[in-house]
Amino acid sequence: MDINALIARRVRALRDAQGLSLAALAELSGVSRSSISLIERGESSPTATVLDRLSAALGITLAALFDQPADAPSPVSRVADQVTWTDPVSGYVRRTLSPAADPALQLVEVHFPPGQRVAYDTSTREHDVHQQVWIIEGGMEITVGEERWTLASGDCLAMRLDRPITFQNLTDQPARYLVALSTAPMSPRRTA
Question: pLDDT tens digits for 35-88?
Fold first, then answer.
C-alpha cells in the first residue's frame, strides 16, 4: 500500500469523524490549510514534525496515523502487513509493529540515520501519552524539554509526551530502537 495514500485516508477520516474543517484542523495543529489538503489528497510526503502536529491536534499518537482500518482488527500484526514510513527530511524509517486491535499500547521500530535530527513540538493532547525508547543498536541523544540524555545500546528512556522532544543521532553509525507508547485519558485536573 502507498504510505502517502494511507496517511491521506487516515487524516481525512479522523478529521471527518471529529467534524473538523480544514481550517479548524489547521488552527489546532499549526499546519497550513493548503498543506493539510495536499496531505489528504496524497500529493505530499509530510515530515515527522508535520505528522506529529496533526496527530496531536487529532488527539492520537503519531503511530496511530499509520493504523490500517479494519472491520475486525486482528490481534496479530504480520511483518508483511506492517506499515513502514520514511521521513522525507531526515530519512529515518519507522515501522509500526503493533496490531490495530490494541490502540492503548503501540510498538514502533525506528532506524535512524547517522548525523540526523528530528524535533517534535509535542503539543497538548487529549490523552496522556507515555513513551519509552529502548536502544537496540547504535546511540541516540534525546532531549525532552530542557533535559538531555545520551543513550547507548541497551539503554531505555521513559518520558511523557507533554514537552518538545528532539531525537538526534550524533554518531557516524545508524541507530535502531524500539518505541513503546501507552495512551490513557487525561486525568482531571484538581482545582483548589
Answer: 999 999 999 999 999 999 999 899 888 888 888 766 667 889 999 989 999 999
What cell was used for 112?
Answer: 535512524
Domains of the chain in start order, with CATH, are: 3-66 (1.10.260.40), 79-185 (2.60.120.10)
DSSP letter (8 states) at residue 59 = T
- C-alpha cell read off for 8: 491521506
Grid coordinates given for 1:
500500500
The answer to whether 96 and 83 have CB atoms below 8 angstroms apart is yes
Q: Which residues contact 192 (CB under 8 A, 6 or more apart)?
A: none
- Between CA 108 and CA 57 the distance in angstroms is 21
pLDDT in tens, 124-145: 666 788 999 999 999 999 999 9
Look up the pTM and report it: 0.82
